[in-house]
Amino acid sequence: MTKVIIDGKTFEVEEGLSIIQACEDSGVEIPRFCYHERLSVAGNCRMCLVDIEDSRGMSPKPVASCAVPISEGLIIHTKTDRVKSAREGIMEFLLINHPLDCPICDQGGECDLQDQSVAYGYGASRYEQDKRSVENKDMGPFIKTEMTRCIHCTRCVRFSSEVTGADEIGAIGRGRDMEITTYLDNAVQSELSGNVIDLCPVGALTSKPYAFSARPWELKHTESIDVMDAVGSNIRIDTKGNKVMRVLPRVNEEVNEEWISDKTRFFSDGLGLQRIDRPYLKENGKLKEVSWEKAINVLSNKLLSSKPEEVASISGDLPSIESVYSLKKLMNFIGSPNIECREDGSKISGNRERWLFNSKFSGIEESDGCLLIGTNPRYEAALINSRILRKSKESNYSIGLLGKENQLNYGYNFLGEDPRTINDLISGSHAFCSKLKTMNKPIMIIGQGALTGNSGEDFLNLCIKLASKYNFLRHDWNGFNVLHNVASRPGAMEVGFLPESGGRNLDQILEGCNDGKISTLFLLGADEVVLGDTSDCFVVYLGHHGDNGAHQADLILPSPAFNEQNGLYLNTEGRVQESVRATFPVGDAKEDWEIVSMISKKMNLDFQINSFDELRDEIFKSFPDLKKFDQCILGSLPKEMKNQNIKKHKFCNAVENFWLTNSITRSSKILCDRNQFLAHEALEN
Amino acid sequence: MTIKRLDINQPNSFSFSNGDLKVINKIIQNYPEGRKQSAVVPSLYIAQKRAGGWLPEKAILKVSEILEMPKIRVLEIASFYSMFNLKPTGDYFIQVCGTTPCWLRGSDHIKKACSELIGDEGEVSGNRISWLEVECLGACVNAPAVQINEDYYEDLNYENMINLINNIKDKKTIKIGSQIGRRSSEPKKVEKDNA
User: Fold this and answer.
1) Each residue of A118-171: pLDDT tens digit?
2) Interface test with A, best of B5, B76, B77, B135 (most A CBs within 10 A)
3) Which residues of A touch B2 (CB under 8 A)?
4) Which of A1, A82, A667, B156 sits in a 20 to 30 Å window from A391, CA-based?
């Protein structure tokens, strides 16, 4: 600890901090524009000037507090007249070329420049000449630019190079002619680009989809979590009335730091499109609106007339633990063993440690090497990719990729696309083994693309074998990580939404649908399964969007989207988090547990779910670990298993198209546009 | 200073000669492994020479490829330094110093001569001459001075500048250095006395 004296008060702060960090920790506010905790120090806005005093006396001129480290006994003055006038001067300079168009600027009300000019500014400008104006840049469909407002803090430039790794944004020209731009006005391609909107301290980079639609003080904020991927980013959903206006990140150091992916940021318009608001029943090949009563009637008659083993259910990408649990309960009471949550055909099973990100995301920080197997983290979990990118910049950090070759924005050793190479890695005959041997805390990240197909489980066993061969698994370090790409899966795995003994797995269910062995199939928000000719299978879709699942359904039961109900989710590292209701469900939608309860009542089954709280209590009783909110529930070290035949194993891409991965994103006009846009650019180049 | 942008008219291709590549590789060797980017300024300079005095986009791309740098970073550097030209220059590229000492000694007259005989600043004339006002050439003692391609021409005034440009136009040989017969920067009077 280091002792510093700030404005006459003594504080003990951590060693090695800069002055601005020390002041922050001690609760003294210092205005800033270019400084950002998560980016490198640029020191170019000069707004954070303070006076310092050491044994040699007062500093001859104010210093930039973001760029000067503290030393023992340093005296910092933040309220002297000189500091005050320095801030006023800087503010006046910054405003020289800044248009005063706050009334028409989307940043208004949450603008650093606006706030700080009120708090630290001079109040008037002495500048009488012409202001400079800058052409707006086209940065693609997400980012709206108004470059005249730019104060050249270069946060976006540093973000683009340090967090996304894509190095797309830069500052060309110099001095008065400096301009922030992308190379030849190309659209920003990164999956994290939307974060520059939050980073921009002024209104130069704002959200294009959100433009001119609301003012920050009109919005209701709901703190929730994101389900677009399995990272479980902490988000704030901003609503106006019953409409989600925008999604912003919340800080959670252990999960998303303070970033979110563009998919998370811009899916919200999909919540208002293609919604299922009433029950529908297919009669004579056409879907017709029916009442809830009739729908449940038809369904329970169908269920009563089918044998238990003829009923199956598949859960999809988005349902919460409560939804999955209540459907599982229904299936149990009906007596059907055919339940499946691995909608992509992945073969994970068994104890938690066999399908969780055991090192946690924070483990990436600690690791000294990384082996990616059958995964494209950039698409499957963009924020994890950003963490690996940060590590990749350290010298001696080596990354190996066994799987499909992809642009990950950092360099890696490509070990080939053949899964059988893992045998060479285990035997030690592969060239990369020399690097694996030197790693003390390596992590292995296995994507779902490596675990599909019949030999998926065998391959997972081989991965565990490889992990125990090197330092991945030690009593004090668990670097064996399975990466999920859908939000619902880890939670569904935890409550055991998996084939029970004698039950059919995904392939067998689909086969059963085609050969008549399955007569009723529940799709709980499952939009990725493609049924073949299912003429004699009665498909029930519980969900909120008219997407693939609903297109194949004979009966559609509307249920709320994740932001319209409370629900628990487990992210890929086993962290229990709660998604919170931000808006009300549309139309007649009923929560999944209510639907299950109605079916159970109609069928006279021996269980009732009377309220959501009751359901949750029941879940907590059966799965007490889920009570540990915001903690990771992890298993022990995974053990080797014998079965290891991977002769015909192949890798596939778990996420082919980053932008359109689930029913909400496919309904979102913004994300569809973005997808089209990329396809268009690819053609042009 | 004007805003520097890539020129609208771009050549279809750009390539370094083998000799250029050898030089660039040698420059890269000056830096530790993995620090290729340090060679960006000299590489761009070589590219500028190869492309005929300016940097087309293809040259910037080529340099970013060779040095494994993001292209925007190379563009940043090319647009930052005033000695990189992003617009075509003439075969005779006259850089007129306009910084204070030269300005005091009449660089305005030099600029006037240039615009009269060549045309607008930054534009290439019919006979492949172009001129640009630049910052200090470091030849203040012999102000005003201009740089034509790689050589300095000093002690100029309106008349001898006109003369100089006319000689270039007529493909006559022109005298490098002082245009009033000074050998270096000795006082003019002393020169007379000695003579």
Assistant:
1) 999 988 889 999 999 999 999 999 999 999 999 999 999 999 999 999 999 999
2) B76
3) 177
4) A1
Tens digit of pLDDT for each residue in A241-288? 999 999 999 999 999 999 999 999 999 999 999 999 999 999 998 999
**Most distant pair of Cα atoms in chain B: their distance:** 61
Residue of B nearest to A165 (CA): B70
Supply the ipTM of this predicted assembly: 0.89
Q: What is the pTM of this model?
A: 0.93
Q: Alpha helix locations (H) across B30-170?
A: 40-50, 57-66, 71-80, 100-104, 107-117, 158-169
Contact B71 A183 (CB under 8 A): yes
Which amino acid type is present at position A25?
D
Task: Answer whether residue A263 is part of any domain.
Answer: no
Residue B94, helix vs strand vs coil: strand
Closest residue in A to B6 (Cα–Cα): A184
For tokens 């020479």, name the residue: B49
Burial class (CB in 10 A: 0-12, 13-18, 19+), A80: middle
Minimal CA–CA distance to A493: which of A599, A600, A376, A357?
A357
Domains of chain B in start order, with CATH, are 18-80 (1.10.10), 92-190 (3.40.30.10)
User: Domain boundary residue among A63, A79, A95?
Assistant: A79
Counted domains in chain A: 3
CATH number at residue A440: 3.40.228.10
CB A71 within 8 A of CB A169: no
